[in-house]
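Hey L., structure's done. Input below.
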Amino acid sequence: MAAVYAFAILPGVTDFVTLAAVLAPAMLIGGTFLANPKTMLITLGALLGFLNTVGLNASYAASFDAFLNGAVAQLIGTLFAVVTVSLFQTIGADTAARRLIRAGWRELAQRSVAPGPPDAPGWVARMLDRIGLLAPRLALSGADPGRPLLDALTDLRVGVSVGELRQLRIDGYADDAATIQPVLHGVGTHYRRLRPDRPAPPEPELLRDLDHALTQVAKDDGADHRRAGVLALTSLRRNLFPTAPAYGAAA
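Output:
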């Protein structure tokens, strides 16, 4: 396909609009398979190999010998990579998926008790990368990827709320810090104890700490500080305890 594009189609392309039009069929079909976890990895390799081999440069240069040399080298390199990985890979898709899940839990536990300001963009980027790596491995293992990916998205939201509470602890008053600290400690303890083979709900003490923190933060005199605290605590409560009674119902 790269040869057809490089020597039959691209010589007639003179502007970006035409380039986008002629590449659209291949990219759209490839994107369809890229969205399927079962074909994601092989399609990603095919698309990267196609774009690299076809030679999208600032100006067109017809050199069949250079094209053939690069294409053959790429195929041979891919073959060696497949053989090498198959020889030295010691873990299966299930183990790789569990390691990715545990990595997210471990970082979330550390994030809950870490000092200093949070890095929200870095946390979101790493979790999205993990979710992207997790989907094809779950598909290869034959497991239903729906629930684990939903749990990973929940962990992402929990981490964002934890970062907002850490920032409030830094910016707020001493009383707020004392109220928020048990919540952060409880989140860290929960994720530190989690095991992929033995999932467990959060401890009831954490729910009580969350409700107490909501009560205290809602009394804050600063409107912006109060709103940020209530939103972060509410998000944390809804993600960790989705089936718990509504706030204040028990009281």
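The mean pLDDT is 84. The chain has two domains: 2-88, 93-240.

-- N.
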